[in-house]
Specification:
Blueprint lengths: L2 H44 L2 H9 L14 H8 L2 H9 L14 H8 L2 H9 L15 H6 L3 H10 L13 H7 L5 H12 L14 H8 L2 H8 L2
């Protein structure tokens, strides 16, 4: 075999060996990283702070995700594990990272009234303009579900009280349409009105929050909005 051809084959073989070795190393790193990511997500769900700290110290990505696109922080938020969420946020977790259905730690905490976690996200760069899968800000589902202190916190943070979601509803409309008319939703309506919520914004059928309140016999809400 000519020496030149022999040398070329040797180079190709060596290159192939190097590539194979590199791919093997990559697969090994991936295989090692995946269990660590799964462990971090599991620790976040269980609120296991020492395990979270150990995994992060070992180099596990703080924003590792599961197959739903949820980060460890979002998992901790859903589980209501405030201490775990705090450790992750202080380690640099992205409070605005959204999963496959557009939930983020900030949006979920707002929607579900996870007030302590919400305050942590607000202190670490929460995007007040970010929206969920319905095109709504954190304020809208908070108003719907009757989370009074959450609503007040989001208003104080500067969330737009007149944002309209894909359903054509503002926080005020949702508080009236989907609320029960009780004390919590009355307090939310007052808070929204005092913060400048526009009672004249209609839904897609042209009906305002004030008119909905009248139709449902929510007198306290009517009074709050008529005084605007």
């Amino acid at each position: 075999m000519p020496r030149l051809l022999h040398d070329r084959r040797a180079v190709l073989v060596l290159g192939a060996l190097i590539l194979a070795s590199s791919l093997a190393a990559t697969h090994m790193e991936t295989a090692m990283a995946q269990p660590n990511a799964r462990a971090l997500l599991s620790a976040a769900e269980q609120g296991d702070v020492p395990a979270i700290q150990a995994l992060l110290a070992a180099g596990t990505s703080v924003d590792a995700r599961n197959d739903q696109g949820q980060t460890a922080l979002l998992v901790a938020t859903i589980a209501g594990e405030t201490d775990a969420a705090r450790v992750l946020i202080e380690a640099g977790a992205d409070v605005n990272a959204q999963d496959a259905i557009h939930d983020s730690a900030y949006l979920y905490a707002g929607a579900r009234g996870r007030l302590d976690i919400l305050k942590l996200t607000l202190a670490h760069g929460a995007d007040l303009k970010s929206t969920n899968r319905f095109g709504g800000t954190a304020l809208i589902p908070a108003a719907e579900r009757g989370h009074v202190e959450t609503v007040r916190t989001l208003i104080a943070a500067g969330v737009n009280v007149n944002h309209v979601n894909k359903l054509g509803w503002t926080a005020l409309l949702e508080a009236v349409i989907l609320g029960d008319g009780g004390a919590r939703h009355q307090a939310i309506v007052r808070a929204l009105v005092e913060a400048g919520a526009d009672v004249r914004i209609p839904d897609k059928e042209g009906v305002t929050a004030l008119e909905h309140a009248r139709r449902r016999g929510f007198r306290e809400m009517v009074t709050a909005m008529e005084g605007r």
